[in-house]
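Possible regression after last week's pipeline update?

I re-ran a chain I had predicted before the update to compare outputs. Posting the input and the new output here so someone can diff against the archived version. Not blocking, just want to make sure nothing changed silently.
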Amino acid sequence: MTQKKYQVFISSTYTDLIEERKKVQEILLMADCIPAGMEAFVAANDEQFEVIKKVIDLCDYYVLIIGKRYGSINQATGISYTEMEYDYAVSQNIPVLVFSIDENIELQEDKVETDPIIIEKLKTFKERAMNNRLASIWKNQGDLAGEVAIAIMKAKNEIVRPGWVRGSDFNPEENLKKINNLQEENKRLSDENAELQKSLEEFTNVNADLEFDDAKLHISYKNYGGNYTSYKDITLKEIFAFVSINLINVSVSSSGLEDYIAQAVGASSSVYLTDKTIAKKIYNQFIALNLMHTKWVEGKGLYIGLTRKGAKLRDELNLFKK
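New output (post-update):
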């Protein structure tokens, strides 16, 4: 597997953070990254800054180390070149990792701003930079090294970047083979999906004349007093049309379904079907035709509802046609 390396630009004020920059470079090298600090070419004018921008463009991540110095100020913009570097990295959507020194840490005088105006500029810049989600506070070089190590590994895992690959590690033929394999796999899956869609459509397409013949069932029912017996000749299509319209987005118990079948035949609360098994035979026929499905509800028993195909047939039989 090709091992990527990631180029990381290190930005900071220079003379006050020389040792800290060296420490961060060491950590980045151990993390399989390529440090890109402009150690011998610190931005001090517009021409140099244009060169630095080109280096930032080539980087995968941008590390900003903030101490207690604001740095050289660009006379045209009124802000430091360090802040300009940060702004440029953000504008190019390069992931920024910010590490700011703890304000309670005391440093030697030449590493601390004394001008109130510059101090305020530094404060404003620091507050803005620390709003970055990959921002942390450091107290000493060891602390900074640990924070950078954690942040760069997190960034590599969470933020995908192009990275760099050795020319000798790049195998065009192997990559072309992988692309061809992926294209073939994609075509195979597309064909399978098309077949499944076709099968589903065939499975759910409905035509009442194809599902049921015109044969009529001769079903008898009598009243509970036993005084009379009646008969009704009815087709399965007619029974399904009545029963299914009562199963819109609901399932019913097996006994409830038997009641609907009896009502379709003409029975009421005062009469019952003479054949005790005819209702079961009828809804079993619907299940066999994939018009109904069953499910067992714990503590309640067997429940029956319409399948997708059954719902389509219900609509075909019951919807008002133009």
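Follow-up from reviewer: compared with the archived run. The chain has a mean pLDDT of 84. Marking as no regression found.
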